[in-house]
User: Fold this.
Amino acid sequence: MLKKIKLIFKSKLILRFVFTLFIIFVFILGRSIQIPFLGPQIKKIFDDIYKTLLNSFQLINFDLKSLNLLSLSIYPYITVSIFIQLVQKLIPYLKEWREQGEIGQQKLNRLTRFLAILLAFFQSYLMINKYNIEFKDKIYISFFLATGTAISIWLSDLITAKGIGNGTSILIMVGMSNAVFTTFQKIFEFWPIKKIQFFSLFFLLLFILISTIIIYLAVLKIPIIYPNKQSQVENYIPLKINVPGVLPIILTSTLQAFFMFFINNISFFNKLSYKDKIIEFISMSNSLGIIFFVCLMIFFSFLTSFVIVNINDISEHLSKQDAYIENCRPGKQTTEKISYDFFRITLIGVLFMVFLFILPLLISKFFNFTEFKIGGTGFLIIVGVSIETLQQISSTANKEDYARIF
Assistant:
């Protein structure tokens, strides 16, 4: 451990770490920049607007103090990314770009960024269109908030390219930081008057933290055999229990925010007599809404897991290496064996994620603790981003150490 810490301080990694902290500081600073040159009447309606944003992003504990430059943050970009991923195979030129390798990926990235800024402008305009303010002010505010999304995307790219970790995930985690602080502040308020509840909550959160780390790092090892090799080193295929990490949560929460936003801001829905029931459903105020979003999370978990891990590629690679799994023939039988094992461990990860998803509801019911703002999914995001960042730090430090030796 001490050796790795020394490697980090000796290598250029410390500069990347400092750069990441600087970008996070800029992002936090951006969240305090108010929209300038507006009259007092317009500022009065901002409380209502930012409450709409808070309700829209409740699933992942999106937190705002007021409407500001980075209010929409990176979320329009995530929404567009989901859309692009879903329609890639349906639109011919997107399919061509996907097959063009790095050049095609650059084209897709540019399109995603352009559509994200366009969506941010459109969302901002819808958000303020229902208020009685001048058209030029509506355009100005929409442009300002869309610019904030463009800045968030740029900061995210800077972290990914020149810093440490995935920029999008880190900005989401930073956005949740105040919710984390508020939750623990409320828990410690139990100490003087409700010691049993305090210790119960404390040990429950500790158990969740430890189990989340275990699930995130757990790996199923499928032994493989090389008939021509006499090496005593064990060879195996490592399959993670939680392959997609926090991605299914981010996808589900972004879609929930997207639905909630448009229902609250499009006039068509105001004419519907059952609008309140739709809002209850999407905000998970009833059991049907909870079941729907749990099913959506399960769907995204399996979808992203089997997209990230290509079972056919693993099977083909084993055949080319003249390797096989014990009691399995190369080809179809090997593919079925890996698919079966991968499905089982993914199911464990999915069930744990569902437990984290409904955890705030359980805590609110049994502990009468409605201020539990972080949520179980928030735990997974924080732990996941932290572990991924630490793993990247470790691997980068090792690479630089090996490069120095050779």
In short: The chain is about 75% helix and 5% strand.
